[in-house]
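[job 4471] stage=fold_predict status=RUNNING
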Amino acid sequence: MNPVRNSSVACDSLIEQVRALVSRDPLPSPESLTELTGQAFEQFADRLLSDLNTGEASEAWIRREFADGLDVAGAALRQVLAECRYRHSVSQGLQRKMFEAETRLRAVLKARRLQPKAASRAAAS
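[job 4471] inference complete, writing structure tokens
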């Protein structure tokens, strides 16, 4: 399994989902478009984090690859949304989803740091 390759495929899927949303005629309402785009981004970020969070990966590597994945997705999404009349509201929703993804990343990394401690305590008992 190549987590970087998997994240690239997930990013491509995210972009295609959003491209399909902004191509609809009629265009969904700003609220609906923001929600649907946010859900697609959240699925991408969850998959990215899951793919990167392998037992052998270092915390620094996971952080770097996750940030790079979000950057690539963000740049591609800006391009897809450039001509959309609701781009500002959708972008604000995506920014919130990015912050939430970064929060999940910190929680996952914290749990990874705590796992060895919990395992060693259990072995000592």
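[job 4471] summary: Residues 3-124 form one domain.
[job 4471] exit 0
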